[in-house]
């Protein structure tokens, strides 16, 4: 088990190296002078020259890359062009809304989607199956901003139950914090719920045909335990892995959802940075999000070994 | 004469297929309607979609302006009709380009085993960057134009096609007829084109439909964020971006294009699902999910 964890940990390294090469090369091989791009639109020729010296642009590409990667490894993502703050400081100041939104979405989606997928498979062809499978197809097709505005229209503008937009930090009280989080969470959850429901249903359908399920039923095991312990426990792996893979969708959805609800999080920061052509910030966020995605999938893979004792690497 | 004799049979078998796969019919009808809308836009009661009428801002729907006007008095119906072109062009181009590039890289990876490791590591790396963010990075570097948007959306879709192609190639490689061809000394390019390509086309075409729908969604998202298709080109995402500040007064500016994006994506996805059932009945049965 320890050997498996170690080996899986090592396999993360090439992925992270490739991600950083892509982000690095995009700037160096893109149009224009990287020093001019990194120094910003209002930079003087002296500032551009200083940036060129700082980046070591006279060195060979591999040397530049190692220099740059070493900086990142030390937690230095460079400075923002527009505010001149370190990118890490900027990111830290925008972390809370994004973290709250992402965690609320993951928890809510799993709580809704797993039982829904189990019930849909259990009562295959019934109204609940039609609802879950049809809903999943719709959930995939709905753009997050359309869902978001639809929810705002119903719950904020017409019923006036919830605020239209904005974010309140947890330090200003739980209730205001939660009220502002409800609609964004519902918005971002749509596609994630669709994904998890569909995979749970499909893998449950397969497991429910297995002999051990029939045996469990035959010996008079309560259906609830058959479903949630025997069957769901055995279909946990595809469900877990889709939760991990779905993180990429979730992180992409964060950008759109935060924009709809004026959340001052990392997604908004990304859009602001792109509009201002603040490339170091865009670069930093992409490296951070990709790192999070890779690490979560690492955690998912390691948890397989816990969920399924048959897996020994 | 033979055409007259065979056509009723062809017609009847088409009807049978469509009756067995209602999703196929739904998808085809919606996509055909969208194509007609895009191609015939100039003749469908439209005016210049970029013409600004300062005194006709945010008008409700009327006989002259079927869907009303936007924040600068442009005709919403005309903008939506012309905007369908962007969605369809982006969807079709991204699907076609990523299909071709993905097929080539995937086949090389599956056949030339020496390159397999490095190609797959690169694909893992690309897939580790969330699709929208990778697209945003490309747009932020190269500036927004329709070409950049298409390239930016294609890039993250390529690894999915590569992985699929590679996995099918690896399965096909074990088949007796491929081993026979190898043992007869068939050159690798011919092996790929004649023996392997025909077998992997069906699943890859199904994948292409899902790529197209993802591309339509991402283009709309990028444009909605104001970092996609240039704002002077009417596109569904741009119409929604424009409508954001007027949502309380004129929700139709977001709801109508939003509904059309959702409908198109839904139709393409359902078409893909039905194609998968149609082209690969084994897969549909094994998943036990024929909808």
Q: Please bin the fraction of helical residues of chain B.
A: over 70%
Structural class of chain B: mainly alpha
Instruction: Point out poorly predicted stretches of chain B.
Output: 283-291
Radius of gyration of chain B: 23 Å
Largest sheet of chain B: none
Order of helices and strands of chain A: HHHHHHHHHHHHHH
Rg calculated over all Cα atoms of chain A? 23 Å
Q: How far is the first residue's CA from the last residue's CA of chain B? A: 40 Å
Counting DSSP H or I runs of 4 or more residues, the number of helices of chain B is 11
Shape estimate of chain B: globular
Extended strand count of chain A: 0
Give the topology.
The complex is a heterodimer of chains A (313) and B (291).
Chain A: H1 2-29, H2 34-39, H3 45-55, H4 61-73, H5 87-93, H6 95-122, H7 127-141, H8 144-158, H9 174-208, H10 211-218, H11 223-234, H12 236-260, H13 266-275, H14 279-307
Chain B: H1 2-20, H2 22-39, H3 76-111, H4 113-127, H5 131-142, H6 146-173, H7 176-183, H8 188-224, H9 236-243, H10 252-279, H11 281-287
Helix pairs in contact in B: 2-3, 2-10, 3-4, 3-6, 3-8, 4-6, 5-6, 6-8, 7-8, 8-9, 8-10, 9-10, 10-11
């Amino acid at each position: 088990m320890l050997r498996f964890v170690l080996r899986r940990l090592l396999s993360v390294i090439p992925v992270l190296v490739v991600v950083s090469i892509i982000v690095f090369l995009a700037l160096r091989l893109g149009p224009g002078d990287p020093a001019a791009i990194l120094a910003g639109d209002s930079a003087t020729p002296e500032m551009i020259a200083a940036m060129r010296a700082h980046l070591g642009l006279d060195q060979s590409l591999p040397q530049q890359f190692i220099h740059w990667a070493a900086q990142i490894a030390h937690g230095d993502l460079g400075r923002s062009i527009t505010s001149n703050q370190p990118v890490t400081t900027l990111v830290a100041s925008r972390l809370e809304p994004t973290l709250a939104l992402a965690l609320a979405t993951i928890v809510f989606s799993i709580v809704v989607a797993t039982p829904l997928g189990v019930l849909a498979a259990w009562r295959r062809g019934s109204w609940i199956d039609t609802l879950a499978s049809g809903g999943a197809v719709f959930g995939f097709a709905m753009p997050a901003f359309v869902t978001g505005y639809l929810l705002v229209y119903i719950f904020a503008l017409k019923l006036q139950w919830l605020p239209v937009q904005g974010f309140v930090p947890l330090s200003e009280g739980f209730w205001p914090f939660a009220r502002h989080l409800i609609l964004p969470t519902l918005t971002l959850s749509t596609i994630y719920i669709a994904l998890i429901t569909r995979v749970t249903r499909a893998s449950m359908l397969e497991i429910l045909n297995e002999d051990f399920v029939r045996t469990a039923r035959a010996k008079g095991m309560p259906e609830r335990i058959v479903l949630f312990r025997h069957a769901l426990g055995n279909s946990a792996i595809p469900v877990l892995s889709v939760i991990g893979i779905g993180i990429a969708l979730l992180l992409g959805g964060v950008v759109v959802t935060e924009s709809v609800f004026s959340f001052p999080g990392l997604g908004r920061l990304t859009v602001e940075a792109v509009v201002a052509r603040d490339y170091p910030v865009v670069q930093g966020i992409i490296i951070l999000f990709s790192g999070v995605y890779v690490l979560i999938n690492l955690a998912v893979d390691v948890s397989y070994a816990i969920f399924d004792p048959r897996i020994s690497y | 004469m033979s055409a007259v004799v065979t056509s009723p049979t062809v017609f009847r078998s088409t009807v049978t297929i469509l009756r067995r796969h209602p999703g196929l019919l739904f998808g085809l009808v919606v996509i055909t309607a969208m194509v007609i809308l895009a191609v015939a836009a100039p003749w469908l009661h439209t005016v210049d979609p970029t013409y600004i009428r300062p005194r006709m801002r945010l008008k409700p729907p009327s006989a002259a302006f079927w869907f009303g006007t936007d924040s600068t008095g442009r005709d919403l119906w005309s903008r939506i009709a012309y905007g369908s072109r962007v969605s369809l062009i982006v969807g079709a181009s991204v699907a076609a380009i990523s299909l071709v590039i993905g097929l080539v890289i995937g086949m090389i990876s599956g056949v030339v085993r020496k390159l397999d490791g490095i190609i797959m590591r690169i694909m893992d790396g690309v897939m580790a960057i969330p699709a929208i963010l990778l697209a945003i990075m490309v747009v932020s570097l190269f500036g927004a134009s329709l070409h950049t948007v298409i390239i930016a959306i294609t890039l993250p879709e390529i690894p999915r096609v590569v992985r699929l192609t590679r996995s099918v190639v690896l399965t096909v490689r074990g088949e007796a007829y491929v081993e026979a061809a190898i043992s007869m000394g068939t050159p690798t390019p011919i092996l790929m084109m004649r023996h392997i390509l025909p077998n992997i086309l069906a699943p890859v075409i199904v994948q292409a439909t899902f790529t197209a729908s993802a591309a339509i969604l991402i283009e709309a998202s990028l444009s909605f964020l104001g970092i996609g298709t240039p704002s002077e080109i009417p596109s569904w995402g741009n119409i929604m971006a424009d409508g954001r500040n007027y949502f309380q007064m004129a929700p139709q500016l977001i709801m109508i294009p939003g509904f059309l994006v959702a409908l198109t994506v839904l139709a393409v996805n359902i078409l893909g699902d039905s194609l998968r059932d149609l082209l690969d009945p084994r897969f549909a049965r094994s998943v036990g999910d024929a909808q």
